[in-house]
Every structure is written in C-alpha cells, then in structure tokens.
Design a protein that fits this description.
Elements lengths: L2 H13 L16 E10 L20 E3 L8 E6 L2 E10 L27 H8 L16 E5 L1 H7 L6 E11 L16 H18 L35
Length: 240
C-alpha cells in the first residue's frame, strides 16, 4: 500500500473524529486555570474603578466581569510577554460573569463552557440574542479589560487582541484526586453557528493569537491568480 495514501487516510480519519470522542488530557491538581480570551484596552485615566482605585497614567491592573475576582491577581500573556497584575475593576461587559469558574459555581450563564465569557458567546454565536446581561448589543467578544500600563507597557499591544489569562487563585481541579479536566462539548448547531460567525467576522477582530493581515498583503479580488491567462498546452485541432 502506498505510504502517502496511508498517511493521508490517517490524517483524514483523525480530522473527522468527533470532539466528544477525543481523550481529554489529565491536569495537575494545582495547575492554575488558563483560558484564551479577547482583551480590550480600558483607558479611563482619572476615573474610579469598582474597587475604589483612581486610574492613573500607565496604570497596571485588569478588569474582569465579576466582583468575585476583585483583589485577586491574574497573569496575562501576549506573544512572548507576560505580566501578573491585580484585578481592580469589573467589566468589560457584564458584572456577574465569572467565566473562569465551573458551571456548578458560576454566578450566571452556567450553561456556557468554562473559559467562555458570555460576551464572547453572544458575539460568536448569538447567545442570549447577541446581548449582554444588561440587554446591550455586544460589539466585541471581550472577556477582560487591560489598563494602559498592561496593554501598552507590559504586553506591547497595539490593538485589541486575544490573550492568555492564568488564574492562580483558581485551579483546574477542585480536589487532589486524579480526575479528567473539565471538557464541554457544544451541540452540533452551536458549533456550526459559531464557526460560520467567526469566519464572517474574522476580518473585524482577527483570529485568536494571529495578527490581522495588512492591506498590502492581500491580493485584490479582481487580480488573476498565477494560472489565469495561460494558454492550453493541448494539441491543436487537425484540419479536415
């Protein structure tokens, strides 16, 4: 049997295995919970946060959408940079969405996967009618706000983008016993809706962890491809 054909068949088979059948990894009992979410810049210099902190220039803190995280610390990573900062504000969209917790203790939106902010679900696949907890139309999938000192200074971000957030005060597992990490399998309609929505809106916010392509790197729609305009190399028709 052709080795290339066998390898191709295995790749196709692996790609078509349902996520529900995949074997989840095991995690250390005290491993901090980490998730990738969309981050936006808070700004608001001179304003007062939910914890009473007055925001100064180049301040270093984050906002998470639940008061239960106030006073805690999280580690935010972007590319090869990371910084550990306190949670001093509530936002960006909701005030009762502790998306880093499991569904059994999550304040609200317990039917969402752990690590998925309600705003992200509303943006990506129309959850809650595409609105946040206050009935506002969600305009981006943000699950965390970054103060200027974190956004520009520590992480060197130039625009809103996806970041990795680790929660030292929240572990993957609630006990020390060997258990499988929490796995959530979306229903098929939600998966399809989520994929289509991401594909349509990928130019608006970019793909997670990947920079948005510049205008000069895109081929114009009406530009012919490399095969366009070539003449057929077939034999000319014989005259009768």
């Amino acid at each position: 049997m052709d080795a290339r054909l066998t390898r191709r068949s295995l790749l196709i088979a692996a790609a078509t295995v349902p996520a529900a059948l995949a074997v989840p990894r095991r995690a250390a009992a005290h491993e901090p919970f980490t998730a990738r979410v969309f981050a936006t810049r808070e700004g608001l210099v001179g304003g007062t946060t939910a914890s009473g902190h007055v925001i100064v220039e180049n301040d270093r803190f984050v906002a998470l959408p639940s008061r239960t995280a106030l006073g805690e610390e999280v580690t935010v990573s972007y590319g090869d940079r990371s910084v550990t900062v306190p949670v001093l504000d509530v936002g960006p969209w909701n005030i009762d969405d502790d998306w880093w917790n499991t569904s059994d203790v999550r304040q609200r939106w317990g039917d969402l996967p752990r690590g998925t902010p309600q705003a992200q679900a509303a943006w990506e696949w129309g959850y809650n009618g595409g609105q946040d907890g206050k009935g506002r139309r969600v305009k981006n999938p943000a699950g965390i706000d970054l103060a200027d000192g974190v956004f520009w200074g520590a992480l060197g971000m130039s625009g809103n983008d996806w970041v990795d957030v680790a929660f030292p005060f929240v572990t993957e597992l609630s006990t020390g016993n060997p258990q499988l990490c929490p796995q959530v399998v979306h229903s098929f309609p939600q998966v399809v809706h989520r994929f289509v929505h991401r594909f349509v809106n990928r130019r608006a916010i970019g793909r997670p962890g990947r920079p948005r392509p510049s205008a000069t790197s895109r081929r114009p729609v009406d530009t012919p491809g490399p095969a366009a305009g070539r003449r057929s190399r077939g034999r000319p028709a014989r005259r009768r």
